[in-house]
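hey can u check if this looks right to u? its 325 residues, i copy pasted from the old doc so theres a chance i mangled smth
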Amino acid sequence: MSRAERALWLRVNRRVALLQPDLARAILRSFRLIAAALSERKLAEMIATGALERLYANLLVEATGPGMFLPVQEAIRAAVVRETASWRRTLPPPARLATVGVAFDVLNPRVIEAIRTMETRVLTRLGEGVRSAVRKHVELGLQAGVGPRAIARGLRAVVPLGERQVEAVANFRGYLEAGRFRTALRRELRDARFDATLRRLAGEGGSLTQAQIDRMVGQYARRMVAFNAETNARTAALDAVKTAQRAAWQDAIDRGTIDDGNLMKRWVQIDRPTKRESHIPLHGETVPFDSPYSTGQMWAGEGDWNCGCSDLVFVATGPRALAAA
């Protein structure tokens, strides 16, 4: 990794860490709005009458409409506006600006378009996550022979979870009920305060009371909720930082303070736990600023879930050419 690439990596991760907490709180607020809008009575009726497709296609789509994600939308806009101002200060003179406190509605129209595109991507992903989590919860309940009312009572609790987390919570309950305590002890997000009890039962035999199971599963689910919110928030923060970086450069081009004739961008694949193997060969690929990479993406990792790849944008010293790399 070159010095410039490392500096980019450090900056992106530092900015993401600053944005993530606010975005996580906004996501959790939206999940609470959605959960409050769900009627347990209607849900139970739909499940009892087999009207599942109506549940998924109508009620849940309405409950996860754009208005429910207003806290997330506001947090995203605030983040991108602030980050765009931050990136402007890193541009070469005379494009470098120290503008702060710019309102969303007076930004460059192309910047606004980029923010709205990012918003749509994030909000769509969140809405799909809620709907798939509810679908999985209903599916697991019906398979286990749980009654419609009991399934409906648990739906609000699964709204902040992803589909995989819903399944993980159900599996964790199953381990505890079946006495598979050693398996439960291997779940990373379990509450370690219960470990002594589980180890004792695993060694000496015995079972948990229903109250103990409910308490342990409740704590496990709460940790899953936090994990899901943090994962979504990190992805949204990455999108916000990278969108702002591109917006700062594009705004400078549109203002005429940077000539895009010699502007280049290089795909930087960051070595991180969630890196994509398919992105490794793309590291270092360099193209003109207004051209797509060989993947067809205009920006490194554009649209890819939780992708940490970034673009190193720079002004070449000669005519625009790949040799500038």
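The beta strands are 263-268, 286-288, 310-315.
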